[in-house]
Amino acid sequence: NFSHFQLHLGFFIESIGNFRSQEMTFDVDLYMYTSWLDPRMTHNSSEEVILINDRKARDQMWLPDLYFANARSCSFQEVTVPNFNLFIARNGLVSYSLRATCSISCSLDLVNYPMDKQHCFIRVISYAHTREQLRVRWFAEDPVRLNNEIGLPEFTIDKIQPNYCDGTYRYAISERSYRTGNFSCLMASIHLERALGYNLVQSYIPTGLIVMISWVSFFIDRRAVPARVTLSFTTLVSLTTLGNGLRYDLPQVSYAKALDLWYGACLFFVFLALIEFAAVNSYMRKCEKYASVSKRQTC
């Protein structure tokens, strides 16, 4: 009987990383703890709590049908033994924990990239039981905890918040019909801030230096046409090549990112240096032409 059946849940995130911007996914290794009261599991054993870590015994018991709603893939750790344990108290309180490694999807907002902040979520929901049948709630104290030794090369973790995402979901009944139901949903919100150091060294400083190199042509003799043309085109090609490399690891979004604006401004300044040379060269040739004509008339 699943009428008003209540289940409590908590996470301990062991590791998080491998952010793939193109695929908009990241990997997380976590322990999921669940607890519920099942009157059918009451016992009078001499042991106050019975430990079950045998898979066959576990498979014969009722377990919540929870799944990670926004996971691309998940696998349960089984090295060196299946990573789970199940405790049953005398009053029928069941505590079940397992370890899983999941690839979680996260929709990235890259408008401010690489000075962006991202909000990623881990959503857990019952697959078949509606909220009237199975109500899932966070543990009262510290339901989502993080390994303090986690260090991300690309992001810093601002905070992790437990939230609820209860809502109406649709599920199929037959090929041409479906029903909707209200389901309990838990959501662990991970707030991330991108570290600027990598992009500062790999993007901003190199492109800024290329623009400054293009300004060297202003100090080259205007009559040294091959040198000025070579320098201008070399900086333009270098900037274009570097810009293509910067965009290689990012998804092809339909809006301009902050890095695109910076790159566009750098490209504009290099192009202006090339236009300046063309204007000066054209003006110089006209002056020489007029000087030659004036000299002939004087003679």
TrEMBL record:
Record keywords, A-Z: Cell membrane, Ion channel, Ion transport, Membrane, Signal, Transmembrane, Transmembrane helix, Transport
Topology in the lipid bilayer: Multi-pass membrane protein
Ranges of residues in domain Neurotransmitter-gated ion-channel ligand-binding: 7-194
Pfam short name (any one): Neur_chan_memb
Endpoints of the signal sequence: none
Localisation: Cell membrane; Membrane
Broad class of the protein's primary localization: membrane
Domain Neurotransmitter-gated ion-channel transmembrane residue range list: 204-293
Similarity comment: Belongs to the ligand-gated ion channel (TC 1.A.9) family.
Name assigned to this protein: Transmembrane ion channel
